[in-house]
Design goal:
Shape: globular
Order of helices and strands: EHEHHHHHEHEHEHEEHH
Low-confidence stretches: 1-26, 248-254
Helix content: 40-55%
CATH class of the largest domain: Alpha Beta
Strand order of the largest sheet: 1-7-6-5-2-3-4
CATH superfamily of the largest domain: HAD superfamily/HAD-like
CATH topology of the largest domain: Rossmann fold
Number of strands: 7
Radius of gyration: 18 Å
CATH architecture of the largest domain: 3-Layer(aba) Sandwich
Length: 254
């Protein structure tokens, strides 16, 4: 099994959750909020295909996998600016962005996004233990809903928050704090799971215990999670072994 690892680069003074970076601080979650792209699903292949179809139609050379990977995380409009601004500006970029969304939605139907290793099992185990689940993503709402519907998982999540139905998009922590409040929870019984610096900044800014899964998109940057896991399967294994919960203490207490 992949081992849970603390991150020695996390500044000790960074937010109230810094204790988790120094060891295996137990948490007692009731709500687990997930990012989507790169955390639960592998969306890079479909996004790359859509990006390069739009570029091909406009007579431009393709972007590399790493160029597309580094553009993911801040929302579709920002991604379009990063990957199409070499030939489009202003109104032209707006039109290219809309074309990209149409192509990507069509591509998502043809090539459904696969789960990351262990992600589906992780969701099932958390739900079976009575936890509530939610999604917080910068992906457009209609695309997020389409993906969850096609994977048959829309009903698993208490809330799905995207830029259209959040106060602000990530990394502004108000998006996560509003989701937690609407769920009737608080920061102390919530865990946020993501794969990118955008997610880590969001969780740490909200004062929420934040876990990172490796192998996603844009993990390098100044922000770090409280704890790293190799992938969702490692996070699932740790949950089942009580490695990130004090369920044993609670069940054996007075």
């Amino acid at each position: 099994m992949s081992e849970l690892r603390s991150d020695p680069d996390t500044p000790a003074a960074e937010s109230a959750t810094a204790e988790g970076a120094a060891g295996l601080r137990p948490v007692d979650p009731r709500l687990v909020v997930f990012d989507l792209d790169g955390t639960l699903i592998e969306s890079l292949p479909a996004i790359e295909t859509a990006v390069n179809e739009v570029r091909r139609k406009n007579g431009r050379p393709p972007r590399s996998t790493e160029e597309v990977r580094s553009a993911i995380g801040d929302g579709a409009r920002v991604l379009s600016g990063r990957l199409f601004s070499d030939f489009a500006r202003g109104d032209d970029l707006d039109a290219i962005h809309l074309d990209f969304l149409e192509v990507y939605e069509r591509q998502s139907v043809l090539d459904p996004h696969p789960w990351r290793r262990g992600a589906r099992e992780l969701l099932d185990h958390l739900l079976s233990d009575g936890l509530e689940l939610a999604i917080l993503t910068n992906k457009p709402l209609h695309l997020t809903e389409r993906i969850l519907e096609r994977t048959g998982t829309a009903s698993l999540f208490r809330a799905v928050r995207c830029p259209e139905n959040s106060p602000r998009k990530k990394p502004d922590p108000s998006s996560l704090l509003a989701l937690i409040a609407d769920a009737g929870r608080h920061r102390g019984d919530t865990v946020f799971v993501g794969d990118s610096v955008v997610d880590f900044a969001t969780g740490r800014g909200a004062g929420v215990t934040t876990f990172g899964v490796r192998g996603g998109y844009r993990a390098e940057g100044e922000h770090r999670p409280d704890r790293w896991f190799e992938d969702p399967a490692a996070l699932d294994a740790a949950w089942r072994e009580d490695r990130w919960s004090n369920r044993k203490e609670r069940s054996h207490g007075p």
